[in-house]
Prior knowledge:
Blueprint: E1 3-7, H1 12-28, E2 33-38, H2 43-46, E3 54-57, H3 64-80, E4 84-87, H4 92-100, E5 105-109, E6 120-122, H5 133-138, H6 162-174, E7 183-187, H7 199-212, E8 217-221, H8 227-240, H9 255-264, E9 267-271, H10 274-279, E10 286-290, H11 295-298, E11 308-312, H12 332-335, H13 339-350
Parallel strand pairs: 1-2, 1-4, 2-3, 4-5, 5-6, 7-8, 7-9, 9-10, 10-11
Amino acid sequence: MVRILLVRLRLIGDVVFTTPLIRALRRSRPDAHLAYVVEPAAAPVLHGNPHLDELIVVPKRHGIRRVLDDAALMRRLRRNRFDIAIDLHGGPRAAWITRASGAHMRIGYAITGRSWMYTHVVPRSPDLTPRHSVVNQWDLLQPLGIGPCHPEQDPVEMTDDPRVSQRVARRLTAMGAHAGTQVVVVHVSAGNPFRRWPEASFRGLITALARHDPTRRIVLTSGPSDADAARRIAAAARSELATLDSIPAIEDWDLTELRALIARAAVYIGGDSGPLHIASTTRTPIVELLGPTLAERSRPWRDPRLIDVMVESGPLPCRPCDQRRCAPGDFRCLTGISLEQVVAAAEQVLAT
């Protein structure tokens, strides 16, 4: 039996983008033992994945604790005697884990200072290239002779948990969202300011959608770092909609609950972030707000027959950018997305 190790650390959306590769590996080598090393934040994406045999969750700690964690991980990987290890990340820690696995075949990107840790090196597409992230990671399967990828055959995926779906259904019922009620999920945060639509725009979107149909239930979600912003947006919207009850209080949702919530929704609206790619694992229509990133790189990777609407400001000389410094200083790729554009896109989807 061939034993294959996959390594992808850090961001939730990037781990979602690796799930088509897991399926392709299982299809190519049905008898292989497939293991995956991931950090805790993104681990729920892979829990219950039917193509994986083993999920190895490595703590994300610092200092001496990380040294001890990595030493324990190396011992575990060596005991498993992996034949192939694929670094889907390319960062220093992921490269070290791939090397420390002891696998005879180690595949990774051509990155200065780290390529020596691999036996098979694959060119890495530049970050700003208009090429989808799934395709970029798929390049790492070339040494294994696996052919090209297509979203209709290998979409991103995250396993349903019926118990979580039932729990979310009860929470929605408590909000007044019964069978037949249109649930609109609006994710108001992003990992950095380069992907964050203005608060005032989100507030305008929410009030416009609620006024158009007061029976809707609009659920705001956010990451922990933007919880205060979400509360401000919700409070302002409720103040404007004093006679309506469409805007529930902000609630916490873990990743599995968030997926179940989105799966129940009539539409998901949000920027290029991990939750949007969680939404891509459902059949729910998506309205994606694109700032500095291009649709070619980060649009939902799923069956093209599903409804995905990309809303963007249009061509700009500074777009796409490396998201380290806004050259004009005004985040015009985001502020240039008008409220009217997003409302029209959402209402078009909700009318289908």
